[in-house]
């Protein structure tokens, strides 16, 4: 499933602050459940090794949710470099249905990181004694460009424990991640518009609007003034000395006096 951006603004002459946390429209799940296979619990951290065929941006980390009805436990998920065991990125997936469900996986956004071809990676998740993982011929599908290498098991339930690398048929879907193009990731950190309060969500995208006027007040620069907040009657500034807006010396001259007289006669004070 590819998430679409859902935007819903409510009426009202207010200023709203928007926070959007989402994934690129081109993103897709690295590994997803096809059905069938074997579902098991496991006491240690487990996951799978892989390579990528081209530079690949990881946008989110996730855990398989067997029935889509929420996770029994929170899960730590991490991606590591096989040769050094160095962690590339990690995230915590909360229990329940808090994390968005995409392709049967509960996902949490991360600061995007790029994985490079020619490097062997592996990923692990913990707490699979409560939530089951799946493996077996045809049970797990991998997105093109993400290449399965084998099972990986931790020596304990910790994702940072010493891993053991195995073979086996493609699978071991406990942990997964979301991939997208590494260039120009979709991002809008904040903005202000005329709208209302509330929250809208679609997939991994969330739009929040706060009813209020965080930008209320007056800002001025040069001969321009911006009044923001709830609609109100705008009162112009008093007449100013450099009435003709000249910038060459002498700044104040006879033209300013004549200009002031004309503005005063027109009601400026």
Describe this protein's structure:
The protein has 269 residues and is mainly beta. It has 2 domains: 23-180, Jelly Rolls, CATH 2.60.120; 217-265, no CATH class. Helix content is 4%, strand content 41%. It contains 1 helix and 21 strands. The strands form 6 sheets. The chain has a 6-stranded antiparallel sheet with strand order 8-7-11-5-14-15, with no helix packed on it. Strands 2-16-6-10-9 form a 5-stranded antiparallel sheet, with no helix packed on it. A hairpin with a 2-residue loop joins strand 18 (198-202) and strand 19. The chain is elongated, with a radius of gyration of 28 Å. The N and C termini lie far apart (63 Å). Mean pLDDT is 77; it is low at 1-26 and 181-186.
In the CATH scheme, the class of the largest domain would be Mainly Beta
| Head-to-tail CA distance between termini | 63 Å
Shape: elongated
Derived structural class? mainly beta
**Unreliable residue stretches:** 1-26, 181-186
Total domain modules: 2
Rg is 28 Å
- Placed side by side, the strands forming the largest sheet appear as 8-7-11-5-14-15
User: Helicity, in percent?
Assistant: under 10%
The H-and-E topology, N to C, reads as: EEEEEEEEEEEEEEEEEEEEEH
Oligomer: single chain
What does the average pLDDT come to? 77
Our estimate of the beta-strand percent is 35-45%
CATH topology of the largest domain: Jelly Rolls
From the structure above, extract its key features:
single chain, 269 residues, mainly beta, Jelly Rolls, 5-stranded antiparallel β-sheet, 1 helix, 21 strands, 41% strand, disordered N terminus
